[in-house]
Each structure stands twice: as structure tokens, then as C-alpha cells.
Amino acid sequence: MPGEIILQNPFWSHEVIPSRKQLKSALHKTPFFKPLKYIAAIFGRSTYPLPFSHIEPAAPFLNRAIARIGNLPITERNTNNFYSYFSEIWDQGYESELNEQYSSYLPFLRTLPEGQFLDIGCGAGEFIYYLNQNHICAEGVDQDTQEVERATRRGLSVCCASAESHLRESRKKYSGISLLEVIEHISPDIVSPLLSIIFEKLMPGGAVLIETINIKHPLAFHSFYTDPTHQRPVPSDLLVFMLQWHGFVDAQVIYTNPLAFSLSEAKDPTRAYFNYAVFAKKPGH
Predict the structure, then answer these.
(1) If we measure between CA atoms, which residue out of 145, 139, 102 comes closest to residue 120?
(2) Structural domain count of the chain
(3) Residues 195-248: pLDDT tens digits?
(4) Do both 230 and 140 map to the same domain?
(5) Which one, 27, 31, 180, 211, has least CB within 10 Å?
(6) 8-48 residue pLDDT tens
(7) Neighbours of 230 (CB within 10 A)
(8) Residue 23 or residue 189, greater confidence
(9) CA end-to-end span of the chain, whole Å?
(10) 164: domain range?
(11) Do 123 and 63 sit in the same domain of this protein?
């Protein structure tokens, strides 16, 4: 009938409500506070009273990057140096957050056998520097020439190559291999072969550490598609299974960067943390 409203609500059966009076009556059956959400959805209104429009200044992203890296004339800006600048757009305090995140992994890395550690997609070498400061001998590989130059200027051992070619050409066996915020940049058809090579190049008892965005978090997709080089998000269940498929054992999921918007999220770590990482080992002898 014209003017009827169809409610689809877990607390109601699907039914046709022919008038707002009946809608109001039906809402009384809903737990306290829940009606606000459904009224907002039905009538297209915000739960809270807000002005029709809102304006605020855009963040000075490029200026932040220039302060860290240096200025670059517009005529010299191209795809080769875009990502170096894009990776430095964050506000002050980001570096300390990175170190806090890295410190969450340190107890796991302390369990690795003695040997060389490799950071794939190392960028400017932040994680390599952290590992070296904590007495873990580390090197890195990245395809971005600008990022590799930044890392080498810091005195870090980094080479410019693809992860696959570097691993195939290297004669080393690594104690650990990391991909921090890297797997989402890789084409899905390359992920499985790369995990296979990583497993092969680890020494017995070595481990892989893979960090990415937790897509169960409410803000995950906004953040994910902010980066134009992201390919596809990787759910934790899929990543764990893929690692197990390639022979890794004792997988641990490490959630970091808490950002909960509700009590229910705070009670569920799989939704309350913005990032997750999987630490998994190659079986020892």
C-alpha cells in the first residue's frame, strides 16, 4: 500500500507498518536506545541534531611531508616520489605510535633463532632501525627507489628490488621475515607464491610477521582506500589459513592500536583494534 513502511529489524519480524502511529507503537518493543538508530535510518535523519552543513580547514598533509623530507618543485613531482611524500603526511606523534606498535612484536621476535632478519617493503627503514636498536640484526628490501635512498642515508642495509627476486637471488636463510603494512599492496595472485618463498627462505624455527589493517574495525575501509596503492584488504582468518597452508605453525594474531567507539567493540578485540599482525613459525628440527 502507498505510504507503508517495511521494517527490517532483528528485534521484529519483517512486517508492513501502514502508519507512523503503528511504527511508534512497535518501537516500544525495542530495547532502550535502539529506537534511535532505527528512527534515524527510516527517516534519513542523524541520531543527534546537527547543522545541515559543516566546514573545516583541510589538513596540511603536504607541508608535514615537506617538513620531514624536504621540498620538491612541482615540476619534479611524479609517481616515482609520490609515495615517499604520501607516507609522511601524518601528524606529529606518529613516530612514537610506530615504536609502540613495534614494541608489541618484540617479545615474539626475541624467540627467534640467531641470524639475519629481513623486512620486506621496508620503506625508509623505520622497523629496521628499531630492530637494530634492540640488537636484532636486520636488513630490508623495497621497490621504491626514493624510500631506499632515504633508508641508506640513515646508514641502514637496504636494497632496491622486488621481494620475490630478492628472496630467490639471496643465498641467506633468515631468522625472521616481516611485511608490515605491505600485504595489502600486493596483487592477490602474488601473495600465495610469496608466502611459499618466504617459508623456504626461513631457517628452521624462524618466523614470519605480517601486519595489515583490521577490516573488522569500523574505520578500516576509510583508511584502506585512502592509500591509492592498496590492492585488496586481507581478513585475519584468510591470512592465518594461508600461512597454515604453506606450512607455518603456532600462529598468533596480535592486535594493536586500540580505537573502540562503543562498549561492545571494547569487549571484542577483533573489532576494537585498528591493526592486526600474524606471527607464525616455520617448524624447527
Answers:
(1) 139
(2) 3
(3) 999 999 999 999 999 999 998 888 877 777 777 778 888 999 999 999 999 999
(4) yes
(5) 31
(6) 444 344 444 445 555 555 545 555 445 555 555 555 544 56
(7) 16
(8) 189
(9) 72
(10) 98-281
(11) no
Q: Indicate whether 212 belongs to any domain.
A: yes
**Candidate from 57-66, 145-154, 258-267 with smallest mean pLDDT:** 258-267
| Measured torsion, CA atoms of residues 113, 115, 121, 126, in degrees rounded to the nearest 10 | 90
* Cell representation of residue 250: 603456532
Residues 241 and 175 in one domain: yes
**In a shared domain, residues 208 and 70:** no
